[in-house]
Design brief:
The complex is a heterodimer.
Chain A: E1 2-9, E2 19-26, E3 31-35, H1 42-49, E4 57-62, E5 65-66, E6 78-81, H2 93-102, H3 111-117, H4 133-145, E7 151-155, H5 163-178, E8 182-187, H6 190-196, E9 199-204, E10 207-212, H7 214-221, E11 225-232, E12 235-242, H8 250-258, E13 261-266, H9 271-279
Parallel strand pairs in A: 3-8, 3-9, 6-7, 7-8
Antiparallel strand pairs in A: 1-2, 1-4, 4-5, 9-10, 11-12, 11-13
Chain B: H1 2-17, H2 20-36, H3 40-53, H4 58-72, H5 76-79, H6 86-112, H7 119-141, H8 147-162, H9 164-168, H10 182-190, H11 198-235
The chains are: A alpha/beta, B mainly alpha.
Chain lengths: 284, 238
């Protein structure tokens, strides 16, 4: 679906390259996340993938075509939702969607059905300027999938959303994946990446430091232990046990029998901690 | 073609929604009142100058205003992440504003002098001048950060295009202004009350088409460099 080899890019007038030889591929139907701090190069990578920066070096193929050669018909096949949900403010939700719909030659979704799916049917005749941030973000997503794109690029899809809207957005993204779309996410939000992405790439200083699935990373780089918190009289205590052979661990079994257990968790690490360990950088 | 038509249709609605047409009807009404008091002997000249300086040049302020409004609403990044091409975007602005100019020019002329002698030539003069000035305005606005900056810069850019007015008032040899496309505009507008030779018609159309072509190329390059690059940078960080 997407194949990138030795991708390098330098902005005009910049002293150094922003991208310094990226290699990666993204499979059809995958949710792939680019994680990295501001200025790491993840958004430049996305700009190249969506065809807005064509003066790159190396090979970048999306949907079987080299990006520097694609024309406007490329946008019939990809959807892009930027971090800032911008629309014509004096027009209603449905008017905005109908305008964008009219710019596609291929088949498109019925905007009213999409709005209903995203819980925005009651806002159809409201001006965009009257919508909340959460509603605008959902509308932004709606616009990006209006033409049934095969590849979807989402920039910080959960940025600025409250937990309820964030959950709705994640469900929508997973639904697009289940329909067969390939989704590329650019984000600082490790939790969203952990919940959504099949694989993530850590980008720092124009290099990809690591590509793997969040689950495998957490298992491989985490501590294989279980922490048990229990109440001994009134005192809260905690003990750690190795996962391997835990069924025969007498002390562990004794704790379970003897004390009221308050919590019991495996101690795999977080994606954020792995990022810090691997790159030596934080995401801020 | 259907994408261009969609863009034109939406531009009309955008201009209507932002109240541009309401303001323009008001401006035309003021012109009608003023023309009513112009003595008959001067009416032709005043109407021609009015048509040249306002309907034909309406795009100078409006096109810039529209692009600034769109820029302010951050719409360009989303718009150009669709199959819409920059050339279609520019043509839609140019065509929609030129048609507005044409309506205003006919309204003013119709009230001041009645039906033009050569309506097709008169209409072509308004349309080609308006589209050229609209594109000039877009090339200027992408270099401006504020409405005040745009107004100053657009006046500077349009200044050379007003020089043929000196020729119209017989100040200096008219051949001096022949390379400026608006010389063709003045000739075609004059067709509303006088007859042009075939050479004059050919020259006027040719110089205006050439002017449109060159300014379209310049506006296209300017917009691509100044607006789209910044919009992409604004849309996605890092």
């Amino acid at each position: 679906m997407i194949m990138v080899k030795n991708l390098q890019f330098k902005y005009p007038g910049a002293a150094e390259r922003t991208l310094r030889g990226l290699d990666f591929s993204i499979r059809p139907g995958e949710i792939f996340g680019f994680l990295g701090p501001s200025g790491a190069g993840k958004s430049t990578t996305q700009k190249i993938l969506i065809g807005s920066l064509k003066q790159y070096e190396g090979e970048v193929q999306v949907l079987g075509k080299e990006i520097r050669t694609v024309g406007s018909d490329y946008y019939e096949r990809i959807g892009v939702a930027f971090e800032f949900p911008n629309f014509y403010q004096k027009f209603t939700v449905i008017e905005n969607l109908r305008l964008f719909q009219s710019l596609y030659a291929g088949p498109t979704e019925d905007p009213r059905i999409l709005l209903a799916k995203l819980g925005l049917e009651d806002a159809a005749h409201q001006k965009v300027s009257q919508l909340s941030k959460g509603m605008k973000m959902r509308l932004n997503f709606c616009r990006s999938i209006l033409h049934r794109p095969e590849v979807l690029f989402l920039d910080e899809p959960t940025s600025g959303l409250d937990p309820v809207n964030s959950k709705i957005m994640k469900e929508l993204i997973l639904e697009k994946k289940s329909e067969g779309a390939t989704v590329i996410i650019t984000t600082h939000n490790m939790q969203a990446a952990e919940e959504l992405c099949d694989r993530v790439a850590f980008i720092v200083d124009g290099h990809i430091k690591l590509i793997d699935s969040p689950r495998d990373l957490k298992l491989r780089l985490g501590v294989r232990q279980i922490r048990v918190e229990y109440r001994d009289n009134q005192e809260l205590k905690a003990e750690d046990f190795a996962i391997d052979g835990i069924g025969g661990n007498e002390r562990f079994l004794q704790l379970l029998r003897q004390y009221p257990i308050e919590t019991m968790h495996s101690r795999e690490t977080t994606l954020e901690q792995i990022f810090i360990d691997v790159t030596g950088r934080t995401l801020t | 073609m259907s994408r261009l038509l969609s863009a034109i249709k939406f531009d009309f609605r955008f201009q209507l929604r932002h109240g541009f047409y309401g303001v323009y009807v008001l401006v035309c009404s003021i012109y009608w009142v003023l023309l009513h008091y112009v003595p008959t002997g001067y009416k032709e000249t005043v109407t021609l100058l009015l048509t040249f300086s306002d309907p034909s040049a309406v795009g100078l302020i409006l096109a810039g205003g529209i692009v600034l409004l769109e820029k302010d609403q951050g719409i360009h990044a989303s718009l150009f992440a669709t199959p819409l091409q920059l050339k279609e975007y520019l043509l839609a602005k140019s065509i929609s504003l030129s048609l507005l100019s044409l309506s205003a020019a006919w309204a003013i002329h119709g009230f001041g002098l009645g039906m033009p002698d050569h309506p097709v030539l008169f209409s072509l003069g308004v349309l080609l001048t308006s589209s050229m000035i609209t594109l000039l305005s877009i090339g200027a606005v992408v270099r401006s950060q504020s409405i005040n900056g745009f107004i100053l810069l657009s006046q500077l850019y349009v200044l050379p295009f007003t020089l043929p007015l000196l020729g119209f008032f017989e100040i200096g040899p008219s051949s001096l202004y022949a390379i400026i496309p608006t010389s063709g505009s003045l000739l075609l507008l004059r067709s509303s009350y006088s007859t042009l030779t075939a050479g004059q018609i050919g020259y006027s159309l040719l110089i205006l088409l050439l002017g449109n072509f060159l300014i379209f190329k310049w506006a296209h390059r300017s917009f691509g460099r100044q607006v789209l690059r910044n919009q992409w940078n604004g849309g996605v960080q890092g």
